[in-house]
Request: fold
Amino acid sequence: MPGLINTHSHVPMSIFRETVDGYSLQDWLTKKIWPMEDKLTKEDIYYASLLSFLEMIKTGTTTINDMYFMTEDIIKAAKEAKIRMQTTRTLIGEDNGEGRKKIEELEEVLKKYEKEELITFNVGIHGLYTCSKEYVKKCITFAPSK
Reply:
């Protein structure tokens, strides 16, 4: 049987599994998940990613499309697990300093890991409900150049 492909993952979020059930999406994100994510360290991201990759490999997944932040720590775990991954630095927000900073972070990671055999990249816009129209346009403009 060929390896399975996980086409939509937030790899480190496995550590939040079954911790905050029963909320609407917006409440789940704004009141529960985002406040917990704000406390995550690079080490948390690395070990949560390694755990997720081990679980995925055990169940037959060999390729992951990941959309999260602290991308380099996820890549470090993916390289150690020897798993194929397409990834991004999730782009979210407004077309302002903070939003532009996220695009710059993605650009830095792209340059650093462009020659990795098992790691490829995309420009991952979080969602139309978390990004301004202007920011989405900026992300779309950035994508073809990469």
Summary: Residues 4-145 form a domain with the TIM Barrel fold (CATH 3.20.20.140).
